[in-house]
Protein: MgsA AAA+ ATPase C-terminal domain-containing protein
Amino acid sequence: MDEDRQATFGSDGSLDTETPPEAREGTTDWGESKADGETDGGYNRYDVSSLLQKAVRRSDEEVAAWAAWELARSGYAWNLWDRLHLYVVEDLRAGQDVALLVERYETLATERWDPQSWKGRLCAIHAALSCARARSSREAANADEFFRNAAAARAEVRGTEADPAVDFPVSDLEPGGPYDVIFDKHTAEGSRRDRGEGFFKRFGARVGPDGEDEQSARWQRLNMAFSDVEYGEDELDHAVEPVEEGNRWEDPVAFDGEGTDEDANDANAGGS
Structure:
């Protein structure tokens, strides 16, 4: 969603003139001419728009349904759908299928039917109810704000010996560090270290913590068997072993280029 679509009032308290033209067709429910930004029910559409997002965020189905209906019938369908699309990325736990439903309802309401019509209003209500029933979370917005704060903190101490007040979760990405496994054939550093297909299959392609299902693990073993790289049985087992839930980046075996796996307790300059 464009940043200017989130704006409401200017610094002087006037309506933001950069927003699309307001719908003033018709009158209010009591027959009076509608003012700029006014809904058919006599409400300020910015207030109703804010109410819609807060209602779906708090899982208040009835209020969300009404706010969507009020915006749709009043000629502010663009505001309704922009707000719902903002919700699915700002206030929704990742992975919720409702994000696809909102897109479908909007297509029906705005491309197949008139968004102010009965069918268009039903789509608005369906979309709002779907959002209100989904699992709300501010995780994406909270993550974005934290990462921006961490970036500023890192920049503030750049060139000094001080540590940043907060840091990125990965700190510095360096070979030999906690995330050493990322330096495989897909990176320049991994190529310089001669970490080719064998390294990637044994270490870089592991998943977790649930691990591969039986069929996927079977295919991985067969692919490795057909490879020009020779793998021992222990290496085949390790390639499909899930990473540890409590330590997803430290491999239980050490590694060094394309060589044979060593015991994790042995010295290994290239290990993690």
Observations:
- Residues 139-156 form the longest helix (18 residues).
- Residues 1-7, 9-19, 257-272 have pLDDT under 50 and may be disordered.
